[in-house]
Amino acid sequence: MQRRDPPDGEPRDMQPSRPSGFDAVRIRPGDRVLALGGYGVRNVGDEAILSGLMNELPDCRLRVVSRAPGETSDMHRVKALSTVLAPAAAWGSDVLVVGGGGIFSGHMGTMGRLIPLFSRLALARGVRVTFQAVGVYSSAPPWVVRSIAALAPKLASITVRDAASARLLRSWGVEAPVVPDLSQAMSSAPSKRGRELLHTLGLKARRPRVALCLTATEPSLAEALLCSLPSLIDSLPEVQFAFVPMSHHPTMPHHNDLQFARRLRSRAPRLAVLEHWLHPAEILALLGQFPVVVCMRYHSLLFAARAGAAIVAIPYAEKCSSWLEEQDLDPVGTDAESLTERICQALSDSRIGAARACTG
């Protein structure tokens, strides 16, 4: 598998970084590698992780476990198979890669709970198992963390993506190096593509712009934002607001940010909404066109930082709060006054039209 170079014209700060951790696994050309993670549920962050993982892996025969194998194959040009076929695929593999993301947390699904058992069975079959840039948080069920700690000595390697995960595993006797989130190894789409997407949203390049990357995963936060954001948007008529969904989950409405975007637009008709499901590299290029991004999801924070945008953060989970702490950034409240003040300050620090946007 060849690593993909950054596209021509990609800004330096949006070029991929290189997470480490595969050296200890000793993947050889021709090895059969199975990747397991949160892939195939139309989550931008998880698809960015897969894209970065593919860039990081050395030459191998890769297959990916996905909830939507056809979509995963089309998006990433990789062989994908359903979760039903995962056990047989693992037993026929040389390496099992549990690939990144906040898999182990209070928001984990059934598959996340089964990963420790699945990994143990693969190890019993002689498969080399590695956990790469995973998130392990205190909100996860204790028995899951205990299972990971018991597995750790048997793994080819285990790395985590943040200090919070490292601290938690250390409290269980496991030392796990901190490496960048695997999405950081994904190349951005060219900035030209970002400008094209901006145009499809009907936004003008010469006017101030704010992207909203929000989620209804925590209902209390969602309801508060549905109350405060319409008045905020109305109070800043010179600012163009666009909702960029980071998840289009097909079966869980509160995880489908597009549905939340449509609810918000019904109360604030001036809001532009990105309706289409796109490759995460395109989302990264689009966010590069916004001087300010209001972030809730973890990968919206990472994407906004990589794009060089000012971040207005409303964390909904421990992983987000941990990232903000590491970056020495403060969260903002969900009330209109706090949000307006922080957005106007961020616009005034940018080079795009702040004085007009936030006066009067």
Give a structural overview.
By secondary structure, the protein is of the alpha/beta class. The protein folds into two domains: 17-185, NAD(P)-binding Rossmann-like Domain (Rossmann fold), CATH 3.40.50.720; 191-357, Rossmann fold (3-Layer(aba) Sandwich), CATH 3.40.50.2000. Helix content is 40%, strand content 15%. The protein has helices at 44-56, 69-76, 86-91, 110-124, 142-151, 163-171, 191-200, 219-235, 257-267, 280-287, 298-307, 318-326, 336-349, 354-357, and strands spanning 32-36, 61-65, 79-81, 95-104, 128-136, 157-160, 209-213, 240-243, 272-273, 292-295, 310-313. The chain has a six-stranded parallel β-sheet. Strands 9-8-7-10-11 form a five-stranded parallel β-sheet, with helices on both faces. Strand 1 (32-36), helix 1 and strand 2 form a beta-alpha-beta unit. The chain starts with 31 loop residues before the first strand and ends with a helix. Residues 1-10 have low confidence and may be disordered.
In total, the number of strands is: 11
CATH topology of the largest domain: Rossmann fold
Distance between the termini: 56 Å
Q: What's the shape?
A: globular
> Structural class of the helices, strands and pairings?
alpha/beta
Q: What is the H level of CATH, i.e. the homologous superfamily of the largest domain? A: NAD(P)-binding Rossmann-like Domain
H and E order: EHEHEHEHEHEHHEHEHEHEHEHHH
Quick structural overview:
The chain is α/β, with parallel strands linked by helices and 360 residues long. The protein folds into two domains: 169 residues, NAD(P)-binding Rossmann-like Domain (Rossmann fold), CATH 3.40.50.720; 167 residues, Glycogen Phosphorylase B (Rossmann fold), CATH 3.40.50. The protein is 40% helix and 15% strand.
